[in-house]
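Q: Given only this backbone (205 positions), what sequence would you predict?
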């Protein structure tokens, strides 16, 4: 099944299922049903069955899903059955938080390098990393053969840095800067802007 044929909204729900299944496995559970999984993630059982069936038949009538089997299949589908190196551009408060964030471990991602354009930050340590000069971004990212990047930089600099990342061979960018990036079609961008999500929530208050 080609990735582009699966609606992005379905792909976006798979990590939610993966996280819930991992918690169930950590609690010693062996099997689950779409009903039980749905109650844990707040999505209907019918929707879960429909989503998962897009990728194959992973359950059995009457017995539900093997948690370990479904976990492995979802990791394979999301390509996190391996470890992806990630470069981080921006050593500000958000960059520091991401370097120290433990949630990447065992989830398929590992920060490989951190860059910043501020000469006063270059050479300083963040966790186990030494901040590298953003001027060397293209050369270094090419050498590391990294395909995934995170941007935690001001909006004014984000487009120029994104273009450098594309030049270096990056295929996926997680963008924390409050700006839409103009990148080639083969590069996937996901946006994380906390203020936008807060505004979405306050509509319901």
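A: Predicted residues:
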């Amino acid at each position: 099944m080609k990735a582009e044929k699966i609606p992005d909204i379905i792909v976006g729900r798979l990590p939610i299922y993966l996280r819930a299944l991992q918690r169930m496995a950590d609690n010693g559970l062996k099997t689950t049903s779409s009903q039980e999984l749905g109650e844990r993630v707040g999505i209907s059982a019918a929707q879960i069955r429909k989503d998962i069936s897009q990728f194959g038949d992973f359950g059995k009538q009457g017995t539900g899903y093997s948690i370990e089997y479904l976990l492995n299949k979802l990791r394979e589908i999301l390509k996190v059955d391996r470890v992806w190196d990630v470069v981080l551009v921006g050593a500000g408060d958000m960059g520091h938080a991401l370097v120290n964030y433990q949630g990447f471990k065992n989830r398929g991602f590992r920060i490989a390098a951190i860059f910043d354009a501020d000469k006063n930050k270059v050479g300083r340590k963040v966790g186990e990393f030494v901040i590298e000069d953003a001027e060397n971004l293209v050369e270094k990212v090419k050498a590391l053969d990294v395909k995934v990047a995170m941007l935690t930089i001001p909006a004014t600099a984000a487009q120029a840095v994104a273009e450098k990342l594309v030049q270096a061979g990056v295929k996926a960018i997680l963008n924390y800067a409050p700006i839409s990036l103009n990148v080639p079609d083969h590069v996937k961008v996901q946006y994380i802007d906390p203020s936008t999500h807060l505004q979405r929530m306050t509509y319901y208050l």
